[in-house]
Structure formats: C-alpha cells, structure tokens
Specification:
Length: 141
C-alpha cells in the first residue's frame, strides 16, 4: 500500500493517495512516511505535519526516514522550533549519523538561516561522508 501511495504522490495525484491511505485498515510508520514525504513533495507541508502529529498521537514510533522526511516541512513552514524538537528526537534516538537524517538536519538549519546550528550538527557527526559534505557546502552557497 505504501508503494502505491508513493507512486500516486510522485505523480501529483494527491486525492488518489489520500483515498488509499484512508481506506487502509492498518496504517503503519511506512505508510505515514510515504504520505509525509509525498505531501512535502507536493508543497502540502501542513498536511505532512498533521500526519506526523497523528503518528505520534497513535504512539507509532517514527523511524529515521520519517524524521528526515518531515524536517523539510518545518523549513517550508518556517517552524524552526519544531525543527529543533525533531532534531532533539533524532539525537535522542541516535539517528543523526544516518546520512539522510544528518543531511536533512543540516539542510533544515541552513534554510532557516541558522548556519551556526547547521555547522554544529556537521561538526558532531562521527563519519562525515560526501553526502554530509555536500549538505554543508550547499548550505553555505
């Protein structure tokens, strides 16, 4: 089901993706993540945060991909406070060293105008691969 949702959202058919999501009998973290990333892709950042909040309310634990997917919504809505809270969750769950999560955190801080915090995240990474370097270089441009 999550793959179908992902395809619909990538094809910009938000209504069909919502129908599949709403008709699902078992909504899990993968399906929510597909909706979150698809909403962000389609510029529907408030909807992405709504799904994320529902996920937390239902006591479904977000994974690294979920957290990396929701951070751009914080940037697009200029909600640095929520972005910082999510970054705290990422640190607490020891997910920051995962490439896409650390890169998303760097990107979020940089786009919110906090290069100091982006650099701080970068400095604290244990293994700075090319993806992390690209995120940091891009944020400085």
């Amino acid at each position: 089901m999550s793959a179908l949702i992902d395809v619909y959202l990538k094809c910009k058919d938000v209504e069909m993706a919502r129908n599949v999501y709403n008709q699902s009998t078992k909504v899990d973290v993968v399906m929510c993540t597909a909706m979150i990333s698809g909403y962000v892709l389609n510029g529907m950042n408030s909807d992405a945060l709504e799904i994320f909040r529902w996920l937390l309310q239902e006591k479904i634990k977000p994974n690294a991909v979920t957290l990396a997917s929701v951070l751009p919504a914080c940037v697009n809505l200029a909600t640095l406070k929520l972005g910082k809270e999510l970054h705290g969750t990422i640190i607490k769950n020891r997910l920051v060293d995962r490439c896409y999560v650390g890169s998303a955190a760097i990107d979020m801080y940089a786009k919110c105008g906090r290069l100091d915090l982006a650099h701080q995240v970068f400095r604290r990474l244990s293994d700075r691969d090319s993806a992390f370097w690209n995120s940091m270089i891009t944020s400085c441009s």
